[in-house]
Amino acid sequence: MKLFKKDAPFYKNVFILGFPIALQTLITVGVGMLDNIMLSRLSQEAFSAASLANSFITIFQIFCMGLGMGASVLVSRYWGMKKAHDNEEKADISLKQTVCLMLRLMLLTALIFALGALLIPRYIMLTYTSVDPLIELGCTYLKYSVATFFFLGLSLTTTIVLRSVGQSRYPLYVSIAALFINLGGNYVLIFGHFGFPQLGIAGAAIATLVARIFEAGAVLFYLLIIDKKVGFRVRHFFMKTRTLIREYIRVCIPVLISDAIVALGSNAITMVIGHLGAAFIAANSITAVTQQLSTVVIQGVCQSGAIITGQTLGKGMKEKAEEQGWLFLGLGFALGFLSALFIFFTKTPVIHAYGEKTTAEAVSIAYQLLNSISLIIIFQATNSIMTKGVLRGGGDTTMLMFADNIFLWVLSLPLGLLAGFVLHLPAFWIYFFLKSDQIAKTIWCVFRLKGRKWIKKITTGNN
Q: Band of the pLDDT at 149, cuts 50, 70, 90?
């Protein structure tokens, strides 16, 4: 199989699906970056605390991505069946059942996280840092973010479902509008312009909540009123789903478990960094957004990989799906190198954007972290497109669940703890070892793709 070949329709399809997703991801990351930069004008403590509090929200976000991407495996496959007129009526019912189960689980998850932010914010912040000012500011941010979980979850999962049937433009337009709402809200609420009170970190949380409410409302309106491909309406939320539960659990739940445990692992990495000192926390806050910016195109290709693979297999074209898998692997290598170059050449202006209140020690650590990230990103791009794209779209979700967790918990976290707290290595090597699972997963993905066991049969349940 070839990693690169002339296949204009394939690359065009990847671009059509991936570009709006990448642009929407860029906007989402941009919102977080604007929050951090604006808060850094107040103090290093303000944006560090918001970054740590957002680590808890990010866990929920990854849970939602797991729910959405798990559902996407089924939705894209059923959509492919409908287009190929293969059990069209059963595929349509199963598609709606999938969305129904996803939304129910998402609301339950949002309730759990919201209660945590409301009732035990201090305990949550203590897991990230022992610095009292950061804990107090972080508690304030979480207090004003309680309702955000519900609206963020609705917009994330609904958007992924719409993308799975080729509808990615409308969510993009909604995100652009939400960006300006958040930006305006930050300006007036953080600093107290136009007669509004100066709320600082609380203002950032409130502005984000307002933007999320708008985003969720607009996307749900489209899904429930306008959309005709998924055809999901309010009454379908109460539909019977027993016939699909076994298939949903087999395919979707491993994605949720995998992403959830990986989220906890990423959270553990944040905890490790949080206990390495205030300067390390500030440096990581800067580099986290930079890394996200460098991977927006990668994330777009990841999701387009899952959708294209699922739809291709839904049409019964196994050999074509295998050929496309190798092309996606080649795209991963190429995008990884481009992302590495992006990080390397933009690190200085990005670090300076955080202003003079960032300490010299934090700046020095940030440079080391970004140098390390520019190396790791090559492997991260490649395996992400395979694990969260092609292999997931093929239904290989259970094996991916085991691989993700073995490499994270058995390899990278122990090495990172050893590097940081025992060997006291420089920041470059601490971060490198904390992310060493990305290298191991890349090697594993090549062998998994070559073995051809990643394509799994998916049924419409017992309808």
A: very high
In this predicted structure, the answer to whether residue 463 has a pLDDT above a threshold of 60 is: no
Average pLDDT over residues 172-201: 87
Rounded to two decimals, what is the model's pTM? 0.74
Tens digit of pLDDT for each residue in 371-394?
A: 888 899 999 899 888 888 888 888
The three-state DSSP-derived secondary structure of the chain is CCCCCCCHHHHHHHHHHHHHHHHHHHHHHHHHHHHHHHHHCCCHHHHHHHHHHHHHHHHHHHHHHHHHHHHHHHHHHHHHHHHCCCCHHHHHHHHHHHHHHHHHHHHHHHHHHHHHHHHCHHHHHHCCCCCHHHHHHHHHHHHCCCCHHHHHHHHHHHHHHHHHCCCCHHHHHHHHHHHHHHHHHHHHHHHCCCCCCCCCHHHHHHHHHHHHHHHHHHHHHHHHHHCCCCCCCHHHHHCCCHHHHHHHHHHHHHHHHHHHHHHHHHHHHHHHHHCCCHHHHHHHHHHHHHHHHHCHHHHHHHHHHHHHHHHHHHCCCHHHHHHHHHHHHHHHHHHHHHHHHHHHHHHHHHHHCCCCCCCHHHHHHHHHHHHHHHHHHHHHHHHHHHHHHHHHHCCCHHHHHHHHHHHHHHHHHHHHHHHHHHCCCCHHHHHHHHCCHHHHHHHHHHHHHHHCCCCCCCCCCCC
Mean pLDDT calculated for residue range 52-78: 84
Mean pLDDT over residues 17-41, rounded?
74
